[in-house]
Write a structure and sequence with these properties.
The chain is of the alpha+beta class and 456 residues long. The protein folds into four domains: 4-149, Cathepsin D, subunit A, domain 1 (Beta Barrel), CATH 2.40.70; 162-258, Rossmann fold (3-Layer(aba) Sandwich); 277-340, 2-Layer Sandwich (Dna Ligase, domain 1); 343-455, 2-Layer Sandwich (D-amino Acid Aminotransferase, Chain A, domain 1). The chain has helices spanning 122-125, 144-150, 173-184, 231-243, 252-259, 261-270, 287-293, 318-330, 388-401, 429-435, 439-455, and strands spanning 4-6, 9-14, 19-26, 33-36, 38-45, 48-55, 66-79, 85-97, 100-109, 118-120, 129-131, 162-167, 188-193, 197-200, 207-210, 214-215, 221-224, 247-248, 278-280, 299-303, 312-315, 335-339, 347-354, 357-365, 380-383, 405-413, 416-423. The strands form six sheets. It has a nine-stranded mixed beta sheet. A five-stranded antiparallel beta sheet has the order 25-24-23-26-27, sandwiched between helices. The protein has a four-stranded parallel beta sheet with strand order 13-12-17-18, sandwiched between helices. Strand 14 (197-200) and strand 15 form a beta hairpin. The longest helix has 17 residues, at 439-455. The radius of gyration is 26 Å and the shape is globular. Bound molecules: adenosine-5'-diphosphate. The site of adenosine-5'-diphosphate (ADP) has 23 residues, from strand 20, strand 22, strand 26 and strand 27. Adenosine-5'-diphosphate binds at residues 276, 300, 302, 306-309, 312, 338-341, 344, 348, 366, 371-374, 409, 411, 420-421.
């Protein structure tokens, strides 16, 4: 067999996966080969196991998506470039380089943040190639416009929807991902700044206007991502979009309900969803009673308006609890007093719920000497396997709020999972990064599904 002379990067083809042209980095320092894949699922057919996955075959272009399937031959624990170990599926498929073709094994992983969609390690090249590490594209280079022609680009289809992302900062990771995920799926996406919307609320002809007077109409769907400070106005605009017939991924009612911590806990309690024992009082004379009600110190005092862990204080003795509560009250702040779940060990779990399903979960651990697990306070996140009970609690909590998309924070107590909080605009960065799932894409799919349902 003739050996193929290749450089450190080459164009190759994986015909059985439907990938006519893909740029690969050749790295004899790596043993295994890997391919960028997301939305990985497995299935069985005729006694064989297959992986079904999506790939953006062209670097830097997320609009081109190819769905592939490959025969699974193994599952391997691989150390990624960041040093972490991860379990990856291994598929076997023919590769074509130059005039030669042979079978190689490739692990599937999310290489989205890396320079190449494919990496070919020494195992795949053994005996087949001669590598010139200083050269590039020994088998010929291809222009980007050419490659795009090799793929069937999902056209901005006729059934593409007009979707508005109603938020405040287009540069946030979550907002950028939602725009991208919608465009990838052929929708017309538009970022709309909440504070620049205004409305005509006359019942005969409700309207939403934007900036210099433009009328926002024929909107199919709205993704509200309202920051806490904008809750009041953001909910009003969301409601207005709903009254002009747009489908809102979270309703203004559900958002407003979940933003009020006290009200959320009352709703959870009505639905018998477990949460830490919590007290609330307005008058300073009841301080001691309230402390007794949650079984005394140590206990947690929470400012009702607080976010990202600010305004959450641990009082270790009854005396300290009394002082903190009275201090907050003298500032006329609304507070909750809650039993302290010590055994949680500074950890909590964020469950990302979409349309009645937990699509991803991460565990957050507080920094040393801290009991609050918030990432903004130096907490770290990692993967976690949640129990069936935790899954059920997260789903019921989102449902109790009426939220289609929700981040449900759960704490593990001796008595089982307890809900701490429900977020109507959960961030995507941590969860996508750690679970390697296309959560933004799943949110867009929920819109497609629910609009279909509404039409039927
Ligand atoms: P915020 O909305 O400001 O994030 P949370 O109620 O979620 O406030 O609390 C912040 C963090 O503090 C939680 O993520 C959790 O790690 C910790 N925490 C909150 N309540 C309790 C509690 N009752 N017992 C133990 N830890 C708690």
């Amino acid at each position: 067999m003739k050996k193929v002379v290749i450089g450190k990067e080459e164009w190759c083809s994986l015909p059985e996966l439907g990938l006519p042209t893909i740029k690969a980095r050749i790295d004899s320092g790596a043993k295994t080969s890997s391919l960028h894949a997301f939305n990985i699922n497995t299935f069985e057919k005729d006694g064989k196991k297959y992986a079904h996955f999506d790939i953006h075959p062209v670097q830097g272009n997320r609009k081109i998506i190819q769905s592939c399937r490959g025969l699974i031959v193994d599952k391997r624990s691989v150390k990624s470039s960041s040093g972490d170990k991860e379990q990856r599926l291994v598929i076997r498929t023919p590769i074509v380089m130059g005039d030669e073709s042979w079978n190689i094994e490739i692990t599937l992983t999310n290489r989205d943040s890396m320079g190449y969609r494919m990496l070919i390690g020494r195992e795949a090249m053994a005996g087949r190639t001669l590598i010139d590490p200083d050269a590039s594209f020994c088998l010929g280079n291809i222009e980007e416009e050419e490659i795009i022609k090799h793929y069937n680009i999902v056209p901005a289809s006729n059934n593409g929807l007009k979707i508005l992302l109603l938020a405040s900062n287009p540069d946030l990771y979550s907002n950028k991902r939602l725009m991208e995920a919608g465009e990838e799926r052929g929708h017309e996406m538009r970022f709309v700044n909440i504070s620049q919307c205004y409305m005509n609320i006359s019942s005969a002809n409700p309207e939403v206007h934007y900036r210099g007077g433009e009328l926002l109409e024929d909107v199919d769907a709205v993704i509200p991502r309202i920051k806490p400070k904008m809750t009041f106005y953001g909910c009003a605009i969301t409601r207005q979009f709903s009254s002009i017939g747009a489908y809102c991924l979270n309703s203004s009612l559900a958002i407003a309900r979940s933003r009020d911590k006290l009200r959320s806990l009352q709703e959870l309690s009505n639905k018998k969803i477990p949460m830490p024992t919590t007290g609330f009082a307005n008058s300073p004379v009841d301080t001691k009673e309230i402390i007794k009600m949650v079984n005394g110190a140590p206990l947690v005092v929470k400012l009702l308006e607080g976010t990202q862990g600010r305004g959450v204080v641990l009082a270790e003795t009854n005396k300290a609890a009394e002082s903190v509560i009275n201090a907050f009250k003298s500032l006329n702040a609304n507070i909750l007093v809650q039993e302290f779940i010590k055994e949680a060990n500074g950890e909590d779990i964020r469950c990302f719920v979409i349309d009645g399903k937990v699509v991803g979960a991460i565990q957050r651990k507080a920094a040393a000497g801290e009991f609050r697990a918030n990432l903004h306070l130096g907490g770290t996140a990692s993967t976690v396997r949640i129990t069936a009970k935790e899954r059920k609690v997260a789903i019921s909590a989102a449902k109790a709020m009426g939220l289609v998309v929700a981040g449900v924070d759960i704490i593990r107590s001796k008595g089982g999972p307890k809900v701490l909080e429900i977020n109507s605009s959960p961030g995507l960065e941590g969860i996508e990064d750690i679970t390697e799932k296309d959560i933004a894409g799943l949110m867009i799919q929920a819109i497609e599904r629910n609009i279909q349902k509404k039409k039927r």
